[in-house]
Amino acid sequence: MKFLMISSFLPSVLNFRGKLLEAIHQQGYEIHIIAPEVALFKAEQQKLEGLGYYIHEVPMQRTGTNPIADLKTLWAMYNIIKKIKPDYVLSYTIKPVIYGTLAAWLAKVPYRFALITGLGYAFQNVEHGSKRSFFQKIVHGLYQQALSHSNKVFFQNPDDLKLFQDLKLLQLNLPTVVVNGSGVNVTDFNVLPFPVNAQNNPKLSFLLIARLLGDKGVREYAEAAKLIKQQHSEVEFNLVGWIDENPAAIQQSELDTWVTDARLKYWGKLSDVRPAIAESSVYVLPSYREGTPRTVLEAMAMGRAIITTDAPGCRETVIQGENGFLVEVKSVTSLVDAMQEFINKPELIEQMGQRSREIALNKYDVHQVNRHMMQEMGLI
Q: Which part of the chain has CATH 3.40.50.2000?
């Protein structure tokens, strides 16, 4: 039996779906992966192939909207799938879900699954009643067509499922399942001591890990850092991430300003985020919308309190006042107020961090999440 995963970014297969593929492989399935630009990620390719998986490259523009290029992607996927003859296909992120699902249907793959991991700019503002752009209507129409040919669709939070239903992107008889994100390996991300100050007490050090996009709340985080440090210069702010090729990406000049005025420490892009989490005491993600944010789960597993937005995907990770605080989307004032809580009551750092770890163990353990998905796909 053969299992095929279709991705738009090879490193994410290892980082976000590695444990799922490992569990499927252990059930005796032959694993195949389709992704673009494989040559750019030699280390990931070698690691995946070292595990006995087969990698297939397709042309794919991750963020482009060229219909000719997208048709080439569909055709390339179809030809590879016809050659592989998989029994199961799981696609995730926008282009693999659309073109991968259609290609798998055309190639007559028996079991076709889609995983909606986050909605991005193609769904920006649509739930607030604003008029959909021509681009959004096209993308939503493609989603509707592709998902009508899937056997089941997985969502990572109930808000995304509801939005797809409200937009009539899902047929009424199409089975859907909400899973607890991608899960987190609670063994790899274990609790580590907090950084301490000169008095040997937990030091207040905030951290944000994200692609440096406006809709990740990066600008709100930087502005909150500026305001807090005006009153509390000892408080630290850390930023991990990179400027992505995305319409919502921040400008390099903005990042340079934040670093130059010493409001935050910029770590750059990290292949292993654990050292940065270990150097922090509170994790912050002021995102406008997520599937389920993996970085929040990793910080929770390492026993860190959380500040995140009362937004789809984010709100599921925080029990207000127990393991952190939910703040308003796009509100610097709300973000500063939540940060101020930890300044006023430093004992919350340890109390909420301990609760975060408990929630990670009980709700987001990657093995539990993967077992749920495998059962729903009929793999076990």
A: 2-183+366-376, 205-363
